[in-house]
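Let's practice the habit of predicting before peeking. Look at the sequence and jot down your guess about where helices and strands might fall. Then scroll down.
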Amino acid sequence: MALNLPAYRPARNTQILRYLAFAGMILIAPLFFVGGPGWSDGPLFKSAWNLGHILFFALLTLAIQPWRIWTGWTLWGISTLAVLLLGTGIELLQHGTSRQMDWQDILRNQVGVWTILALRPRASLTRKSRPVVWPLRLTVAALLAAEIGATARVAIQQYHVSQLLPALYDFRQPDPSPFWDGVIAPVTDHAIDAHKRALRISLSTAQYSGVSLHNLPEDWRDYDRLVIDLYNPQDHPLPMILRINDMEHDLGDNNYNDRFNTRLPLIPGPNQFKMDLDRIKAAPESRSMNMQAIRRLILFAVALPEPKTLYLRDIRLE
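Done guessing? Here is the structure:
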């Protein structure tokens, strides 16, 4: 026997969905200007945070329901233009705060509104335009999948980083930029047999010149020593400095006495340095370094008289 459902139920459900979208939008909106990833946060948090643009503008579209006013290409055109202007305004306002502008966020905003429009029956297009409905939906789906896929790839990358120990870097990586800052490139010169590759570090005459390993396994508690293998191709010594800090230091005032600093005097040819982790742990003046939250390892030189090159051949814990 068929059920006699009230005729108003679909409209009521639509209204409830609209109220929920409004509520979600209001909760998310302040996050454009407060909170969010800082410079010390990891790449996965930053990548996942970017998906919030898609979610916010999808909720905004559900809340406003522009298809009640326009249809067809007019609906798509006006919605796209409105989101473009609103998104640009948000980016400009963020530029006036501690947040940085990211023009790729404008595309993410569009993906949010396009996703909802594409899910509308027949993509809210007129009869003459209906042959393009499925190509349009597939295009929007591809854009959405690309954004979600990018975050998924970062998640996989970060899982691999967490499994690297005792190594702190995988020398098989073809591109070091997701892990290192600075002028650094993978090469086969001066590599050790274990890796077949090394990292060439180019140093300039700037006051501070070097590289920073910012994406690395953070929990060093089960190990005793840090081992760094370097190669100095110059025919004279090269003075380098090693700096290591934890997350607490990253969130602090960059106090010199709140981190580990040591000199690495490189003689010509191969150099290996071993440092006890207890020494690193005890380096901060007024506390112990959190060996469960190591955030950054920096190799740099100070005020070199001319550009130099060195090679990082291995970096690991023992």
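How did you do? The mean pLDDT is 91.
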